[in-house]
Amino acid sequence: MNLSRRLTEQGLELIVDGRLDAYWADHLSQEIGRIIHEGIHHVRLHLGAVQYISSAGIRVLLQFHKQLSRIDGSFLVSEPSAIVRSVIQLTGLEALLVGAAPVVPSESVIHQEKGIVVERIALDPAARMRCRLVGTPTPFPASGFTAQDVQVVAARSNLFGIGLGALGSDYEECRSRFGEWMMVDGAVAYLPSDRAAVPDYAAGAGAYHPVSQMLYGLCWEGQPAWQFRFDAHEPRRVVSLSEILQQALSVAGTAVAGVVIVAETASLVGAALRKPPTEALRGATPLAHPEIRNWLRFTPERAFPESVTLAVGVVAREAPPDLMPWLRPLGGETGLHAHLHAAAFSYHPLPRGRLDLRQTLSGLFEQHALKGMLHLLTDDREIQGAGESELTRGACWIGPIDRITRSEDTL
Question: Which helix (H) or strand (E) segment is 161 a member of?
Answer without folding.
Answer: strand 159-167
